[in-house]
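ok so i was messing around last nite and threw this chain in just to see what happens. nothing serious, just curious
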Amino acid sequence: MKNKENRIGVDQFQRRLLEDLSMFVCNVTFTKKDRTKRTGWMTTDLRWVPAADQPKGTGKPLPPGSGLLRVYDFKRMGWRTIRLAFVTSYRLLTPEEELGLKFETANYEEEHEED
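result:
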């Protein structure tokens, strides 16, 4: 019975993470395949994604039920796929972090403008 209770907690955590990523930028910590920890600012909300990196509809869709999530990673300034089960924690950005991110994103877009 204890495992079932723990599983419900994991499902709720993942649902909350998906919901928050769809509306905000979050500071997400997860374990990579090589077992190292990685933390970064990530989102699935396209309003935050720089114009140069907006999806073009040419990528392969993720298999349903795969436990994979495609997120925009502001440290790498690009898209990456993470395993939901490997996310260990996350939090929403503070207003100060959000302001800094908007500044970095604006600089990135300026550098990648098409002439």
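not much to say yet. Residues 2-23 form the longest helix (22 residues).
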